[in-house]
Amino acid sequence: MNYLVTWTRKALAQLVDLVTSATDPDAVDHAATRIDELLSNDAHLQGEERSAEFRILFAPPLAVLFVADRAVGVAYVVAVGCSGTPG
């Protein structure tokens, strides 16, 4: 199933902070692009379940918390941070 990937304002602000403070901003940008690619296809199967609603996906050096709404075909990225693993 194809999904539209939407980043909340909070998640986008977090991403901007990560890019501007990164020692390798290109790695952060590439990880964000990879996250979009992964979530656009079968988002409900990507990453790991954290609760009935939330899933987490690791794309080093980033990790995102997201919600996959199968009813409307949208994956909402609600938070992003460092994965703790270099890219």
Characterise this structure.
Helix 1 packs antiparallel against helix 2 (25-39). Helix content is 32%, strand content 33%. It is α+β, with helices and mostly antiparallel strands. The protein has a five-stranded mixed beta sheet with strand order 1-5-4-3-2.
List the helices and strands and how they pair.
Layout: E1 4-7, H1 9-21, H2 25-39, E2 48-49, E3 54-59, E4 62-69, E5 74-82
Parallel strand pairs: 1-5
Antiparallel strand pairs: 2-3, 3-4, 4-5
Helix pairs in contact: 1-2
Put the structure in a nutshell.
With 87 residues, the protein is of the alpha+beta class. It is built from two helices and five strands; from the N terminus they run E-H-H-E-E-E-E.
The count of DSSP E runs of length 2 or more, i.e. the number of strands, is 5
Protein structure class: alpha+beta
SSE ordering: EHHEEEE
Strand content: 25-35%
Rg measurement, Å:
12 Å
Provide the residue-averaged pLDDT.
96
Please, how many helices?
2
Helix amount, in percent? 25-40%
Q: Unreliable segments (pLDDT under 50, ≥5 consecutive)?
A: none
Biggest sheet details: 5 strands, mixed
Strand order within the widest beta sheet: 1-5-4-3-2
* Ends distance: 28 Å
Mass-distribution shape? elongated
